[in-house]
Amino acid sequence: MKVLVVEDEVRLAEAVQRGLAAEGMSVDIVHNGVDGLWAATEHPYDVIVLDIMLPRLSGYRVVEELRERGIWTPVLMLTAKDGEHDQVDAFDLGADDYLTKPFSFLVLIARLRALMRRGAPERPVVQAAGDLTLDPARRRVARGGVEIALTPREFGLLEFLIRHRGDVVTKPQILAGVWDSAYDGDPNVVEVYVGYLRRKIDVPFDRHAIETVRGMGYRLADDGG
Question: How far is CA 167 from each of CA 40, 83, 170, 191, 222, rounded to the nearest angstrom?
């Protein structure tokens, strides 16, 4: 297994390198996001271990750029933070797994081996509802060829809705699929983000793609409204 470790804490990176090498893995180390993006683009790796808080270019931006370039090497993200929103943001941008520092080295090894067995995912196909399109690979949304800028959370919500287009989805289903299965905040956050989406994908185009189904949830029209 060939592993790229992108970590600015030198002692941690070297410790990880020694441990992975002892497991028979080949490991390259870089200490900032720009060099990490270059290495991951120019050389083939079986898996990438990527810190979120990096100098020059954040881990979020690195994984987002890799996916936009069509590079689907599995990515395990590391962070000193411990919050569900960090995890969701990482997954929204294309990460495959997530580990919070400090972590067990045995858990890291197990996660990396699982990612290697899984292999690089297939390139996601472009989803469409009428003239509304969502490209998971490039993180792009367009209506009638006009590109629409969405935040990561808005993108995640639209991706969930478009995968279930034509079906009614409830707030709990949306929270579990877009936020986190253990989310215990205000469920009305779904209404807030549905409103954000409507103002971006419907209102400027005089469309009504997202329907509120009273007492049940929401539905994205098959034809894009």
Answer: 39, 31, 10, 17, 9
Cβ–Cβ < 8 Å for 128, 160: no
Question: Helix (H, G, I), strand (E, B), or coil: what is residue 55?
Answer: coil
Average pLDDT over residues 39-68: 89
The helices-and-strands tally (H runs, E runs) of the chain is 8, 12
**Other C-beta atoms lying within 10 Å of the C-beta of residue 87:** 18
Please, what is the average pLDDT of the chain?
85
Q: Note the pLDDT tens digit of each residue in 7-35.
A: 999 999 999 999 888 888 889 999 999 99
CATH topology of domain 127-220: Arc Repressor Mutant, subunit A (1.10.10)
Beta bridge partners of 168: 219
Please count the residues of the chain: 225
Q: Which CATH number is 2-118's, of 3.40.50.1820, 3.40.190.10, 3.40.50.2300, 3.40.630.30? A: 3.40.50.2300
pLDDT digits (tens, 9 = 90+) for 184-223: 678 889 999 999 999 999 999 999 999 999 889 999 998 8
CB crowding 174-191: b at 16 or more within 10 Å, else e: bbebbbbeebeeeeebbe
C-alpha–C-alpha distance, residues 28 and 34, integer Å = 15
Q: How far apart are CA 109 and CA 24, in angstroms?
A: 11
How far is the C-alpha of 212 from the C-alpha of 219, rounded, in Å?
A: 7
